[in-house]
Structures are given as structure tokens and as C-alpha cells.
Amino acid sequence: MADRIVKLLNDLVETSKDGEKGFLAAAQDTQDPDLRTLFQERAEACGRNAEELQALVSRLGGTPETGGHVTAAVHRGWVHLKAAIASRSDADILQECERGEDIAKGHYADALREPLPEDIRDLIQRQYTSLMRHHDQIRGLHDRYRASA
């Protein structure tokens, strides 16, 4: 059981690292100082989530992941290439952030469907609840920026 839980937690570590890197990239790409601050705060939150999950992996005797998913790295590279080729609007950047949050939501929802010890479930649920709140905030901003474009 511990191996299965370590694998599940490491997937969430990678997911959180993907979010951290994605939001840092978004902070670099936006011209809006308020969005830059929001993206930096989200990156920090994702980093804290990863650290909490890594501590759990270590406590269970596993080796914590330290990076993100390979496909996310490819996606970030593509996002930066698109940004270099054409100027992207903040609505476009928010759309990419929302897409990343959608992917993270899926990983967390999958994890919560698994049988887990209560303390681990509680941590994952707390992170998932925060993720949902931030996702809705990003979606609302995306809708607002798109409507004003």
C-alpha cells in the first residue's frame, strides 16, 4: 500500500511543480503588474504544496520527486515559443493558466478517489480545495479579460 501511495503523492508533487513553473512563466509573460503578483503568489502556493507532499513521501519511506511531468515541460516550451513569435494578450496567458489548473484538478480528483489514510486524504483535500478556489479566480479573470478584449 505504501508504494501505491508514494506513487500517487509523487504524481501530485510533479503536478504541483508543473503549476509552480507554469505560473512563474506566466508572471514573466504578462504586462499587467496585478496579474504578475497573482501568478507569483500562485507559483509560491504550488511550491509549498509540493514541499508538503514531498515531506509525506519521505515520511512513508519513498524518494520524493523533485521536478514536474515531462509533458508539462514540453507544453511550457511551446508556450514560451508562442510568446516569442507573437505578443500574447493577458487573456491568452490566463487561458493557459486555466488549462494548467484544469489538468491539476484532474490529478487531484483522481487521487481523492483512491483509498487513503485519513491524514493524507485531509492534506490532499485541503490542497484540492485551494486549487479549486484559485482555478475559479483564474477563470473569472480570464472571462473578464476576454470580454474586455
UniProtKB/TrEMBL annotation:
Pfam families (alphabetical): DUF2383
Domain of life: Bacteria
Domain DUF2383: 5-114
InterPro entries: CHP02284 (IPR011971), DUF2383 (IPR019052), Ferritin-like (IPR012347), Ferritin-like_SF (IPR009078), UCP029477 (IPR016920)
Gene3D superfamilies xref list: 1.20.1260.10
Protein name from the UniProt record: Aldehyde dehydrogenase
Organism: Bordetella genomosp. 10
Lineage of the organism: Bacteria, Pseudomonadati, Pseudomonadota, Betaproteobacteria, Burkholderiales
